Structure formats: C-alpha cells, structure tokens
Amino acid sequence: MNVADSELVAGILSDAGYKKAESIDSADIIIFNSCTVRQHAEDRVLGRITAEATRKEQNTNILIGLIGCVAQRKGEELLNEIKSLDFVVGTDQYRHLPEIISSCMNSKEHLFADVQNNIENYENIYPVRNKGVNAFVTIMRGCNNFCSYCIVPYVRGRERSRDHKEILFEIEQAGNDGFKDITLLGQNVNSYNDGKYTFPELLKETARVSSIERLRFVTSHPKDISDEVIKVMAAEPKLCEHLHLPMQSGSDRILEKMNRKYTPQKYLNIIHKLRNAMPNIAITTDVMVGFPGETEDDFIQTYNLMKEIRFDYAFMFKYSPREGTAAAEYPDQIQEEIRLARLQKLIDQQERITYEKYQEQIGRRVQVYVEKTSKKSDKELSGRTRDNKIAVFPSDSKLIGTFVDIEIVDATSWTLKGKQIQHT
Ligand code: 5AD
Ligand code: SF4
Question: What number of CA atoms fall less than 13 Å from residue 379's CA on the CB side?
C-alpha cells in the first residue's frame, strides 16, 4: 500500500512540475512515506529522518517532509519533536502537497496537514510507477474492521471504494505502459463496493482487460472472502493461483479477542475450498504471536494450524501495542522474551515448510514473467511465477518484460531455479 501511495504522490508532484531525483543525495526535497502498523516501522522512519538532518544542516535549502500513517498518527507533534522536518502530511491530504511544499520553500514555515476526511480516493491522478513489470492499482482505501490490535482504521480512516470505471481505465493504461502483472490493492478488498460493482464482479471485469496478462489482489479478510470470489479465481485465466489470506492466530479465543470474526475452523474451511478449486494455489499469510492474553496453549494452536495448512510463505510478527487501539489497553500484555521465543519457533517451522514446498516444485513447468537480470549474475534472469514465487534461469536480457516457460530444476527456500523450455 505504501509503495502504491508513494507512486501516487509521485504522480501528484510530477503533475505539479517536480521531477524524481536520481538518488536521495541529489534530491532537493526528501519525502519519507511512513508505516505505523508496528512500533519498529515507526522507529525506523524517524531514524532515517534524523540521519538526513545532518545533510540539511549543511544545505539549508533541502526540504524534508513526512507523509503516511506516522504523519497521520502524530501530526503537528512531530514538527516539535524533529526540528529538521519541514512538513508533515497525513493520508488524506496528498493533493495539497504541491502548495505545502511551495509555502515551505518560500516562507521557511513548518507546515502540517492531517485532516482525515474519510472520502479522498485520489481519483484522476495517474501514479508515476517505479520501473518494472508489476503494478499496483488501489481499488479501495481505509478500513472499517477495527481488529483490536490494529492502528490502520485510525490512520487511514473509513473504507471507501474507487469507481470501477476509474479502476478499469487505470489497469488498461498500466497494461499499455508495459505492466502486465497487476495487483489490486486495498486493506480489505473483499468488501469492495462502489455502489455498482461488488468485489467478485470487479474481479471478473478486471481479469478481462485485454492489455494485461496477470491479475492478483491483496489483502483479503477471511470473514469476507466469498465462494463467488473463489469461483471467479478458478474460472478466469488471468487471475493468478495465489492468495494472501491473513490468519493472525490459530486460537479461537485469541481470534475473538482480536475481533477477527472467524474461527480457526472457518479459516481452515476456506483453505480447503481454495485448494479444491485450484489444486496448485499458493497460499500466504500474516500471523501474530504474543497478543495480550496469549497462553502457551493458544500459541501451540497457531503453531499446529500452520503445520497443518503448510503455507507457501508467511509474514510472522510479534504483537506490538499501538496507542489508541483496544488491545493496547488489555491488562495481560505478554513479556517481550516470550513474544520473541514464540516468534522464533514459528519462523523456524515456517522456514522448513517453505523450503519443502519449494523443493516440491522441482520438475514442474511454470510460466515466468521476466523482471530483470538476477542479482547474482547478469547471465541469469529473474522473474515471478503465477503463484508469486521468484524464479531465476540462464538466458539473455532481451527477454526482460516477456513471459517465458521454464522447467524447475532446483530450489532454495527463496528462489526457484529453472531452465528455459525450448518450444518446437
Ligand atoms: N502488532 C503486530 N503485528 C501487527 N499487524 C497489524 N497490527 C499489528 C500489531 N499491532 C500485522 C498483522 C497484519 C499485518 C499487515 O501486520 O498480521 O495482517
Ligand atoms: Fe487492520 Fe483488521 Fe483492517 Fe486489516 S482488517 S487493516 S488488520 S483493522
């Protein structure tokens, strides 16, 4: 979401006449886009700003700004906390960035804009995308779910869906610009509704846009993913065999305290339906350990459910209390050492599973959308499979941006290695 928002802001600024700098060192204006979902993310961005402040001391013409969820959460307070910051702009106020930047330049004022309007959808702005072959297209913003640990509804405001016509137009254009693999984005895409189209209806239409080859979407909430979505995924050839479905916990009691509105059994049923409909589907997830009140038994249930499901990959986190959320007030917070130990145990298990899953791919024939030369050797190309795995294979760089069939001959826990299939 933040990559997409940065591209959106680049769109707003390039419409206003600004150009992207080659590097941070050559930039006159440095804008940090921030995430506050966990404390660690917030600490990192504040650390980066402080690091750039030294350069600003030597060149007072540089402007430094902060946008995104930390800006939204802390607002004006940040201008007092970090003297080198020139502007702080929250998630619904990016359209005002050009005026804010020019005011800062002209008057050396320090400005902030953090009014949350719950309606801004950034229509009619075409993002300036990073180079590559994959593009994100935002279909909705905000969230109404209020999972008890999560800061997102507070910093991104209420759920709002973009007009399906705008979305379809943007996808077609992205495809024409050479981005053939599109990811639809939203905090909870399954509740998309622009008054005319529901999510499965939108999916069906977008999967038929002629200028693109592949379509995916994130993030789905298990309480909202419908049989209809699974049906569309299985039926539409451009929809890829990959789903990211955050599980969060394998304990019924903890899921209830998290306000997730599904049980482990319901989650498992969705996995079965997905695998029945698409036997080769890759399923990835988000899981959290150390939520307030999580007992060893709750944790073991998470551990066991992950063992049973065998995700292709999992993003695993230790719970981080976010001020203002319900769970941050719960009395039974878990000690840091316990959170860390549980996280490590989960990571160890998942690494094994991911490794095995990648090994199982050996011998399969898959299609790769070639993105770039591989980091290790310029005689190898690197790309993504339809089920979102990175694959490398020896070939010529002129194949970048094309679709190539390979046979998997080897695998590590991160990468598939293949050889090109020569079609006769
Ligand atoms: N602490 C730890 N992880 C969190 N996430 C969201 N909020 C928190 C928090 N307070 C995780 C969830 C979510 C992912 C994007 O980040 O697993 O799915
Ligand atoms: Fe946060 Fe829950 Fe909304 Fe996801 S669905 S953004 S975890 S509140």
Answer: 2
Pocket of ligand 2 (CB under 6 A): 143, 145-147, 150, 152-153, 187-188, 221
Indicate the pTM of the whole model: 0.96
Separation of 317 CA from ligand 1 center, angstroms? 7
Taking residues 272-276, report their average pLDDT.
98
Exposed, middle or buried by CB within 10 Å (0-12, 13-18, 19+), for 147?
A: buried
The closest residue, in CA terms, to atom 14 on ligand 1 is: 286
Q: How many whole angstroms separate alpha carbon 366 and alpha carbon 398?
A: 20
Domains and CATH numbers, the chain: 2-113 (3.40.50.12160), 134-358 (3.80.30.20), 365-420 (2.40.50.140)
Dihedral, CA atoms, 260, 43, 128, 203, nearest 10 degrees? -10
Residue 320 φ/ψ, nearest 5 degrees: -125, 115
**Helix, strand, coil content of the chain in percent (nearest 5):** 40, 20, 40
Average pLDDT over residues 156-174: 97
Residue nearest to atom 1 of ligand 2 (CA): 150
